[in-house]
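Researcher: Here's a chain I'd like modeled. Treat it as a single chain, no partners, no ligands.
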Amino acid sequence: MPTISFFYGVLIKMFFKDAKKHHLPHIHAEYQDSVAVYAIKTGKKITGKMPRAKHKLIVAWLEIHKDALLANWALAVAGEDLFTIKGLDQ
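Model: Modeled as a single isolated chain. Structure tokens:
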């Protein structure tokens, strides 16, 4: 469960081994007691809950870093190490 980014209290992780569960490239976002899964390509929340303000930040971050996230997904599926991606506050 590599952590690939952190911004404004939001932790972003990529669990590539559960691709069969979600059937598409995705990230897991955690903020305090909230956890949600987001599709990388669309930015849509697949499951979970996230405060509205943090949800908006995550969706914006996904759009900005879509290409890097998809590259990370490809590395993860190939069993390679993932790289970190800048947060919105960097």
